Amino acid sequence: MSANTIAAVSINPKAMGKVAVLLGGRSAEREVSLMSGNGVLAALIAKGVDGHAFDPASRDLSELKREGFDRCFIALHGRFGEDGTVQGALELMGIPYTGPGVMSSSVAMDKLMTKRIWIAEGLATPAWRQVKSPAETRAAFAELGSPMIVKPVREGSTIGLTKVTALEQCDAAYSLASGQDPMVMCEQFIAGDEVTIPVLGTGVEARALPVIRIVAPDGNYDYQNKYFTDDTKYLVPCGLPEGEEERIQALVLKAFLTLDCRGWARADVMIDGKTRKPYLLEINTSPGMTGHSLVPMSARAAGLSYEDLCLTLLASASLDNATQPNG
Predict the structure, then answer these.
(1) What whole-number distance in Å separates Cα of residue 44 and Cα of residue 289?
(2) What mean pLDDT comes out for the span 148-173?
(3) Is 284 labeled as ligand-binding?
(4) Where is the ATP-grasp domain (predicted)?
(5) How far apart are CA 147 and CA 309, in angstroms?
(6) Is the Cβ–Cβ distance between 160 and 176 less than 8 Å?
(7) Same domain, yes or no: 21 and 89
(8) Active site amino acids
């Protein structure tokens, strides 16, 4: 079995108990979350799991305990789902859930905090500035150069993101980003190959899946090209120079463990086209599971079907405080 191959583990679906798939929610990524969650739910039911859809936007989370759910598959994206808030509520109720715990989820949702930790651990990430006004955005453009990325600190799916190539674009870019989150950051743009790498597992069992190289129309991997068109190309095998995939997998695995993630996540990386140095952009602790999503694509390349991936993730559901009784 190659390093990029995964064998499906035998899991008893009935042992998963009554399962809630958390989907929808109140973030700007609600539409994508509904697609992810419905896909996961269908896969789990097909495998024989007693699965039920649960939308926190229309139901109080306390109903999970009252209705006797044994575990949750978190298919929420963005704030109020991927940021530690739902994880904390589930911890209080003692209901195991998929993905990283409270602290890891909260930190990973905050791109500035993530960068500060990675820098402290010696992991490369593009230069950045936090900005609080259009004037500070223009000053950051003078420092970081063109192109420059302007984006909300606590948002995902490229929502509110602008690639700035001229000074006169800075004001509108800041306005767009700050409309999503009062915390805004500017980031040096790394020209080169864009790749994404999922990680599955916890602790010493965690492993990086095959690297996916993303080739978007005109290099613009935005919200539309991520979820609603077929124009973006996803290359797996990634076709990177020899040895590069393994080095990037090792980098991402270290980034995952540095944030104390567990269960699964997906990291986005840019590779400098001239130096071939990889730079960590961010890590997603509740990645997409839609028909266009990248974790299922990478898992499939490693020999793990969508249905088996969903069941494997569900079986990994846990709590930060594992000694806490469920009930």
Answers:
(1) 13
(2) 92
(3) yes
(4) 115-315
(5) 37
(6) yes
(7) yes
(8) 29, 157, 293
CB 184 within 8 A of CB 178: yes
How far is it, in rounded angstroms, from Cα 272 to Cα 279?
A: 8
With a pLDDT cut of 90, the percent of the chain lying above it is 83
One domain, residues 112 and 196? yes
Model pLDDT for residues 239-294, shown as the tens digit of each residue? 998 899 999 999 999 999 999 999 999 999 999 999 999 999 999 999 999 877 99
Q: Are residues 41 and 76 in the same domain?
A: yes
Residues 202, 64 within the same domain: no
**268 annotated to bind ligand:** yes
- CB of 187 closer than 8 Å to CB of 227: no
Report how far apart, in Å, the C-alpha atoms of 165 and of each of 141, 147, 149 are.
9, 5, 9
**CB-CB contact of 128 with 115 (8 Å):** yes
Pairing relationship of beta strands 212-215 and 233-235 according to DSSP bridges: antiparallel
Query: Taking the CA atoms of the chain, what radius of gyration do you get in angstroms?
Result: 19
Any idea of the CA torsion for 236, 237, 241, 245, to the nearest 10 degrees?
A: 80
**Which candidate, 113, 152, 103, 156, places its Cα nearest to that of 284?**
156
Strand partners, 128: 187
47-77, pLDDT tens digit by residue? 999 999 999 999 999 999 999 999 999 999 9
Query: What does the block give as tokens for 156?
Result: 């995902």
SS3 25: coil
Do residues 68 and 166 both lie within one domain?
Answer: no
The answer to whether the annotation marks 218 as part of a ligand binding site is no
- Residue 134, number of CB atoms within 10 A of its CB: 16
Q: What is the largest CA-CA distance in the chain?
A: 59
In angstroms, what CA-CA distances link 40 with 91, 192, 308? 22, 33, 10
Amino acid identity of residue 63, one-letter, is E
- Looking at the structure of the chain, the number of domains it has is 3
The candidate with the shortest Cα–Cα distance to 18, out of 52, 44, 41, 58, is 52
